[in-house]
């Protein structure tokens, strides 16, 4: 039991000043059996608190269909057991480089620009969700003997909007639903962000990666009183497919952390341990033109160049931070916990069973439906996954350009059964004209919904239809395949290829590949797919996430608890085409 309050100058616990030394760790990006180890690593670095977001779309993939909301409560219990306080950031929007910023596709699809505003329908949906989620938080508040000391109102709202009425209503809903600990907001240290994102009577905090004095000076112009806190100290950064891997020098990051603490402020390291965006939940950003430019999908790894790496290991940045934080500890810092076991011996397997992609869509996707115009992913209830569109070019007619207007994000196109090209948002027209009559098939993949900026919630798929010359092609047939269709292992094993019938893939074909890896000494591992191009991979039914030969990520993290001694079943959904020798291999992680 305790009384945690926001004082005029400090945070106070039972009347005494306390400094929050927090680290971000997302329970949904770490295998549950490894929570204890990662939390112990935070304690060993010198932290006294952990912070986590809550992704609404993970826990409610369809309206009213709830999935393991209690995971948040179990994580908070694990934090308490590790001796850490907890900060909870329930959204409803979280960013976090997470699909759609955590908002469900079934919400953003129909509501569009009404999200994150005072709109009555949007707020009613949020209130219903909070009614389910917040009991996990309320019963674990510090005044009830739990670890929760603060709860956030929205997230970086000043980077998006200025609807103060919406923020006040959201804060009131949190209070109405039983949140008694202090509320806070977090925004960039800029005037327009703080005026747009802060709420009178609610603690305002700021987010930055450097120049602490300047950031806190801006905050003080808006809030002369109250404790200073950098709610997101960006000690690393995230990666995009096709870009260079981002790193930050440990000494530079440690100096910036030292500057924050020297100002008498509290801090939350973002990220202390990033983890992994398993199961295709990585989001995307748009660059340039005030975030309306080209799409930059986030990679599967959320290592973030954090002090605790994706495998849970201490990095040079960890040791630099530990040295800084030790000066603010009440006594000697805890020793590091024992490291999780790593894979004992590498293994390689040929994926010798194959099911054509068309059959996968026919069996695991929804039924093919006819539309006058191409439907979006949202209209087909597809969050993460692919949609197959089929449309006929009438004839006879001479060859004309064929264009996927408003394509989001990538399409492999076949004309009369022959591959004709790969289209993208930036290159939406086939290289060769198409004559009629012809049958056109477009397999469209979402590369991750935007998680930040004004394009948040934009739809996926053929959002502007299919054009032949300047003419729309109507009578589109569509089948959607969600990634969570693969959660039904028995249904997947019912596919022709996975029943073990003769089904070796012709070279270069897309489809679902299957094989078995024999493992000795199960433990943390990395998985490589040397001949594959782009798609998703599962080990023993656990989706590791998206792979892409584009880089910079060249392998996928396999949590040790996913593997088992002996045979391990591997599925690979290849969406573009495989080179010679469809094989996978696992090995122990390279030395950090």
Automatic annotation (TrEMBL):
PANTHER family registered for this protein in UniProt: BETA-GALACTOSIDASE RELATED
Name of the protein described by the UniProt record: Beta-galactosidase
Family: Belongs to the glycosyl hydrolase 35 family.
UniProt KW keywords: Glycosidase, Hydrolase
InterPro entries for this protein: B-gal_1-like (IPR026283), BetaGal1-like_ABD1 (IPR048912), BetaGal_gal-bd (IPR048913), Galactose-bd-like_sf (IPR008979), GH (IPR017853), Gly_Hdrlase_35_cat (IPR031330), Glyco_hydro_35_CS (IPR019801), Glycoside_Hdrlase_35 (IPR001944)
EC number(s) reported in the record: 3.2.1.23
One Pfam family named in its UniProt record: BetaGal_ABD_1
Reactions mediated catalytically: Hydrolysis of terminal non-reducing beta-D-galactose residues in beta-D-galactosides
Annotated ranges, domain Beta-galactosidase galactose-binding: 512-568
Domain Glycoside hydrolase 35 catalytic, chain residue ranges per copy: 11-327
Record organism: Streptomyces cavernicola
Highest classification ranks of the organism: Bacteria, Bacillati, Actinomycetota, Actinomycetes, Kitasatosporales
Superkingdom field: Bacteria
Residue ranges constituting the Beta-galactosidase 1-like first all-beta domain according to the UniProt record: 376-475
